[in-house]
Amino acid sequence: MSGLGNIRGWLLAEVPKSKWQARGQRFYIGWLAFRANPVAMAGLIIVAGLVLVALLAPWITASDGLEPDLPNRLQPPSAEHWFGTDQLGRDIYDRIIWGSRITLYIVGLVAIIVVPIGLVIGTIAGYVGGLVDSVLMRLTDIFLAFPRLILAMAFVAVLGPGLENAVLAIALTTWSPFARIARAEALTIRNSEFILAAQVQGVSTVGILTRHVTPLCLSSVIVRLTLDMAGIILTAAGLGFLGLGAQPPTPEWGAMISLGRQYLIDQWWVPTVPGIAILVVSLGFNLLGDGLRDVFDPKSGA
Amino acid sequence: MGLTSASSGQTAGSGLAPPSVLVSIIGVMVSLTLTFIGLTAITFVISRVMPVDPVLAIVGDRASDEVYQQVYLQLGLDKPIYIQYLRYLGQLAEGDLGTSIMTAQPVIDDILRFFPATLELATVATLLGIFVGVPAGVFAAVHQGRWPDHIVRVVALLGYSAPIFWLGLVALLIFYANLGWVAGPGRLDVFYDGIVEPKSGILLLDAALADEWDIFHNALSHLILPASILGTFALAYIARMTRSFMLDQLSQEYILTARVKGIPERQVIWRHAFRNVLVQLITIIGLTYASLLEGSVLTETVFSWPGIGQYITHSLFNNDMNAVLGGTIVVGVCFVGINMLSDLLYRLVDPRVR
């Protein structure tokens, strides 16, 4: 008990004694604000649940969700098959669980591509300024003005349908807001004294950008990324639904809806359950993003 | 949604030294042109990267070498890439988007035939979004923190988070298959097909003009479900933004002044606060409309709505690249155009931006 009290005291001390204490404190105070927000907590629970389900998939499913079992096709939900079975007799519950890995894979891959591109372009534009800034921001604006789904469709048309190509197409139309955020952050701190101090010490431009400017952009970028996750999931599911994303027999939720479409009227559970999964996960990311924004950036609450 | 930050960023930038209206109009035109060049450059690159030989697509694989060479030169494929791009721009300017393999007609004709259906759908959806979303947003803001606010916020979040194609399927199941309240997929019952002459291509308008009220009702019955589903997103976005704009205004001092002066609350809300919100809403509504034109792709697939989205999707599966790229450009140009137009309108209406 006193151990916990000590940690709390350390986390809430008036004057932090080390860099690590300061960081820990900031995180802890943010967490306290976050915890007091029930909506944000609901979002966190959903997203954490998604991650947990994806990690535990081999242990909480009875099958890999890929093997057809034709005698048991289109079974309604029951004790044995919680969400029923699909047109090939595969257990929909198992497929939903395995599908959570694909959803995480999509959002993770998009994030890995999009955030570095946005950060590099944005920080360079904001920090260097002048002509470089104009050119880079013009480029960003062009991508910002593109219709996302249509462009993604055109890209997939060239690259061929498939999960990775869908991810690439989504990434191409998603990076620009991150560049804008990073640029705005870089602009505000460009003339601050600690940057000047770093310059005087002879830190290179690349060093300043990576070690001083980028870390300060991260909180806004994370908030934006969380809020964008829902859109990414919906676009990926939409591409899957159109047959341009993940291909069968991959248990991608959008593709599952597409394949289950013709059974809508008599076997409603086949297309309905994956839709609910998409809805819940995208709602979770939206709630979490709203909450994170309230914590990190209370002024811009839209 | 990203565009909100774009336009507000531009607004903030021009706020330092107030430029004249003319300068801001020129600015919008320049960025419109640049965006258009970017859009065409991307579709051009896509059309060149494609693993389809454009010459073979025309002459067929049994043509002799001479014919092949002739067409090769005719298409200007021997020229440097930037000349080819300029040629491509020239063709676009003439409205030449190539010929569709699927329909064997000029792509531009196809698009003109399919576009009104999308326009009709997106327009009705946006109107639904405005007429439900704006009052809902105002209502939520006025009752901030109490149950009307919570309900509006939850509904808006659900509208934001739901996959639109799935929502369409569920709506078809409930309102068409089970309750039978509305007509099913498509724009008209087969029975009514081809009676009204397509003057504008917008069925509601054509039927009303031709005084065919049976057809009007049938078209409306077909339209209402896809429009509501597509409008859900508009509703969610508009309600959310209206709420936040209203909250912003209601916390300002002039509202307090008005209240202290004893002006009835109703007038304070609608005549004072809402007036200022209206200006900001222009951009939001423009954004919504543009995104619905694009977003109708999925709704059209679910409801077999013969619009541009379905045209692009079908062409995609038939490897009809001219049609896909033509459709992409047309939707892209509309998207960019509407966004720029609302940006421009905003600058003209809001005296602070001027």
Report the CATH superfamily of the largest domain in chain B: MetI-like
Q: Remind me, CATH topology of the largest domain in chain B?
A: MetI-like fold
| CATH architecture field of chain A | Orthogonal Bundle
CATH topology of chain A, what is it called? Answer: MetI-like fold
Number of strands of chain A: 0
Question: Domains counted in the coordinates of chain B: how many?
Answer: 2
User: Considering DSSP H and I runs of 4 or more, what fraction of the residues of chain B is helical?
Assistant: over 70%
**Strand percent estimate of chain A:** under 5%
Indicate the low-confidence ranges of chain A by residue numbers: none
Which band does the percent of strand residues of chain B land in? under 5%
CATH class of chain A, named: Mainly Alpha
Sheet/helix structural class of chain B = mainly alpha
**Please, what is the CATH homologous superfamily of chain A?**
MetI-like
- Global shape of chain B: globular
Distance between the termini of chain A: 41 Å
- The helix-strand sequence of chain B is HHHHHHHHHHHHHH
Strand count, sense and barrel status of the largest sheet of chain B are: none
Secondary-structure element sequence of chain A?
Answer: HHHHHHHHHHHH
Could you explain how this protein is built, in words?
The complex is a heterodimer of chains A (302) and B (354). With 302 residues, chain A is mainly alpha-helical. Chain A has one domain (45-300): MetI-like (MetI-like fold, Orthogonal Bundle). Helices cover 73% and strands 0% of the residues of chain A. Chain A contains twelve helices and no strands. In chain A, helix 4 packs antiparallel against helix 10 (205-242) and helix 11 packs antiparallel against helix 12 (269-296). With 354 residues, chain B is an all-alpha fold. Chain B has two domains: 20-93, no CATH class; 107-353, MetI-like (MetI-like fold, Orthogonal Bundle). In chain B, 76% of the residues lie in helices and 0% in strands. Chain B contains 14 helices and no strands. Chain B has helices spanning 2-14, 21-49, 54-59, 65-74, 81-93, 107-142, 147-161, 164-178, 203-209, 213-250, 253-260, 265-303, 308-317, 321-349. Chain B is globular, with a radius of gyration of 24 Å. Chain B starts with a helix and ends in a 5-residue tail after the last helix. The model of chain B is unreliable at 1-18 (pLDDT under 50). Chains A and B meet through helix 5, helix 6, helix 8, helix 10 and helix 12 of A and helix 1, helix 2, helix 7, helix 8 and helix 10 of B.
